Amino acid sequence: MTNDLPPRRTASVRTRLLSVTGVAVVGLAVGSVLLWHAQLGAMLGLAADKEPVVSAVDAPAVSTPPTTLVTETPTVTNTPTTKVTPSKPPTRTPKPAKKTTNPSYGEESISGLSPTLRSRLKKAMRAARADGVTIRITSARRSASKQQRLLNAAIKRYGSYKAATRWVLPPKYSAHVQGKAVDIGPAAAMTWLNKNGWRYGVCRRYDNEAWHFEALSAPGRKCPPREPYAVPKAD
Questions:
Q1: Domain extents for the chain?
Q2: N or C, which terminus of the chain has less Cβ within 10 Å?
């Protein structure tokens, strides 16, 4: 037996301590380098992998809808085709025919007489024919120009306007121009109508004109007293 102790492991422990210290120093150095590198990259704008920080205070949430490509189908409208009608030249309106003063009836016809006298005279003519007497119309309705010519001729014949108007009245006073008087013939017809005319409302008016008749009373009533001759009315 000896009193010698086993040798101490001083060298081994020291080596471990140095190793740990070296690792720590290396880690610290690496951390410093990395921190310096990050700060340098931020300063130089090299931190491209980091997203910028945007403040979300008072900022509305924006939702961007997905973009959809819509293809519109054109609408085809059927527009009716308007036919173009060629314009026609203006039609000239024919001028109205000038009124003629010539009557559309004959003076020897009862067509121009007033309805009342014409109706009554027709009945009287049928009754006279039944008695064997023919009533002929010698002058019924006259134009104003014809009446004036007759008056002018009467003035020459009788020598004055006053004497002439006892036989022929001026146009504005004549019952012939108004279709309200009729002259008849022959003498037998005058006699028959003077006697029987009251039955049909047809009466002789003047003493000096046996051929002149008018509708002066109602049928079946006596005719009024005759006048001696025609007198023009005062204007």
A1: 110-214
A2: N
Backbone angles phi, psi at 154, to 5 degrees: -70, -35
Tokens at 152, concatenated: 């002018």
DSSP classification of residue 227: B
Give the separation between CA 2 and CA 5, rounded to whole angstroms. Answer: 9
Dist CA 167 CA 140 (whole Å): 16
Answer for the pair 203, 224: CB distance below 8 angstroms, yes or no: yes
**CA–CA separation, 98 vs 144, rounded Å?**
18
Q: What is the pLDDT of residues 212-224, one digit of tens each?
A: 999 999 999 999 9
- Averaged pLDDT, groups of 10, the chain, 235 residues long: 48 58 61 56 47 42 45 51 58 60 76 96 98 97 96 97 96 97 98 98 97 97 96 73
Q: Tell me how crowded residue 158 is: count the other CB atoms within 10 A of its CB.
A: 15
Q: Is the peptide bond before 225 cis (omega within 30 degrees of 0)?
A: no
CA distances from 227 to 27, 28, 222, 223 (A): 167, 166, 15, 12
CATH for 110-214 is 3.30.1380.10
Please calculate the CA angle 98-102-104 and round it to the nearest 5 degrees.
Answer: 100
Residues 82-109: tens digit of each pLDDT: 555 556 656 666 666 555 455 567 899 9
Q: Which of 97, 171, 163, 109 lies closest to 141, judged by CA? A: 109
Is pTM beyond 0.90 here?
Answer: no
Q: Where are the beta strands (DSSP E) in the chain?
A: 136-139, 181-185, 203-204, 212-214
